[in-house]
Amino acid sequence: MGGDDAGESDRGDREPDSDDWTAESETGVSGGEDGHSPQVSDEVDALFDALADEHRRLVLYYLRDRESADLDELATVVSGWLQARAPDHDMVTPDDREGVRTALHHVQLPRLADTSFVSYDREAQVATLTGTTDLLAPILDQSLADDRRAVGSVDGRRGPGGDRS
Q1: Cα 29–51–131 angle (5° rounding)?
Q2: Contact 19, 72 (CB under 8 A)
Q3: How far is CA 127 from CA 10, 64, 72, 137, 156, in A?
Q4: How far apart are CA 58 and CA 62, in angstroms?
């Protein structure tokens, strides 16, 4: 490489390319060594983890409208939405609801509580939406719209969160 810098421009003198993008350009937060803000990266990871499971997505849709719900209410709603998506559309049985309730209490709500989006009081069995960030709101909107389209394309129904327009 040599010591002649005359032909090289420093980073501030050239047009940025796609490899130069940092979270600072989007959020005003300085990036880390890899150019991405640790806070933004952690939030993105938490968001995708939260949305990766159908139960957690349905809980987020419901809490976004209600802000808070107890475990029994969430179990009833989530099991109903899951059954509405099933090909046979049978009634939700007590066993179906109890299975969803158990999964929510022991797995899904604690996973959501590990994010900054939901708090879950295990003793009181109440989940509360702790806030929709600038990142969560539009992605949750798009996810809900996609879920509604997917369910609607199967049988003409609007799907989860059907009371929202």
Answers
A1: 55
A2: no
A3: 51, 11, 11, 18, 31
A4: 6
pLDDT band with cut points at 50, 70 and 90 for residue 14? very low
- In the chain, the amino acid numbered 99 is G
Sheet holding 68-70, edge to edge: 68-70, 126-129, 118-121
Using the predicted structure, report yes or no on whether residue 165 has a pLDDT greater than 90: no
Residue 132 to residue 30: CA distance in whole angstroms: 22
Q: Is the pTM of this model over 0.70?
A: no
Q: What is the pLDDT of residues 49-91, one digit of tens each?
A: 888 999 999 999 999 989 999 999 999 999 999 988 877 778 8
What b/e readout covers 119-137, taking b as 16+ CB neighbours within 10 angstroms? Answer: bbeeeebbbebbebeeebe
| Helix, strand, or coil (residue 36) | coil
Report how far residue 124's alpha carbon sits from residue 16's, in angstroms, rounded to the nearest whole number: 52
